[in-house]
Specification:
The complex is a heterodimer of chains A (115) and B (111).
Chain A: E1 4-7, E2 10-13, E3 19-25, E4 31-37, E5 43-51, E6 54-57, E7 64-66, E8 76-78, E9 87-94, E10 105-106, E11 110-114
Parallel strand pairs in A: 2-11
Antiparallel strand pairs in A: 1-3, 3-8, 4-5, 4-9, 5-6, 7-8, 9-10, 9-11
Chain B: E1 4-7, E2 10-14, E3 19-25, E4 32-38, E5 45-51, E6 56-59, E7 62-67, E8 72-77, E9 86-94, E10 98-101, E11 105-110
Parallel strand pairs in B: 2-11
Antiparallel strand pairs in B: 1-3, 3-8, 4-5, 4-9, 6-7, 7-8, 9-10, 9-11
The chains are: A mainly beta (115), B mainly beta (111).
Chain lengths: 115, 111
């Protein structure tokens, strides 16, 4: 049971490039989340999903897109990378769907630098 | 969404002493309050959580208290050890399974 797996761990992008951050979980969790963590700050919610085919915006969605075609996978896409998107990105999941609030389980993060 | 404020931002304690971190939240509908510990370069990991129908919860050297009337909750670490040095985040639930996080407290335990 690997939990939440994120790839890549590190990436450097040039301004204007695009990329997809991958996230997969093997716990059959319904709810999945993408956060960004800027230095010395807490986690800010970018997007979340309550199940396959359903996604919604969080607090800071601008410049990002997501999809949820399966229960396991929740990729995050940056279309036109900007320096303001330099951050550490965490994916998380929780059971959701009638289970009441349960702990969110986090991946190891993707450290992204945009130059 | 929910607004969570966390204090202090840094905390230095002598090994063996206690550490207390306080958080306030704005949404009276919040009903779930987890605490996460994050070591440098690592993922946040849950250390304890509390639900709105409970006023206090304890797990070995860690305890959390919740005051719903005042909308604040606190983390207490007793008999601190060097391995307790990390960044601690509080969070409060909002709007069906979402969490808002505090800005974090960097705890340093001095040997």
């Amino acid at each position: 049971n690997a939990g939440v797996t994120q790839t890549p761990k590190f990436r450097i992008l040039k301004i204007g490039q695009s990329m997809t951050l991958q996230c997969t979980q093997d716990m059959n969790h319904n709810y999945m989340y993408w956060y960004r963590q800027d230095p010395g700050m807490g986690l800010k919610l970018i997007y979340y999903s309550v199940g396959a085919g359903i996604t919604d915006k969080g607090e800071v969605p601008n410049g990002y897109n997501v999809s949820r075609s399966t229960t396991e996978d929740f990729p995050l896409r940056l279309e036109l990378a900007a320096p303001s998107q330099t951050s550490v990105y965490f994916c998380a999941s929780t059971q959701g769907a009638g289970a009441g609030n349960q702990p969110q389980h986090f991946g190891d993060g993707t450290r992204l630098s945009i130059l | 969404g929910e607004n969570v404020e966390q204090h202090p931002s840094t905390l230095s304690v002598q090994e063996g002493d206690s550490a207390v971190i306080k958080c306030t939240y704005s949404d009276s509908a919040s009903n779930y309050f987890p605490w996460y510990k994050q070591e440098l370069g690592k993922r946040p990991q849950l250390i304890i959580d509390i639900r709105s129908n409970v006023g206090e919860k304890k797990d070995q050297r860690i305890a959390v208290t919740l005051n719903k009337t005042a909308k604040h909750f606190s983390l207490h670490i007793t008999e601190t050890q060097p391995e307790d040095s990390a960044v601690y985040f509080c969070a409060a639930s909002w709007d069906d399974y979402k969490l808002s996080f505090g800005a974090g407290t960097t705890v340093t335990v001095r040997a």
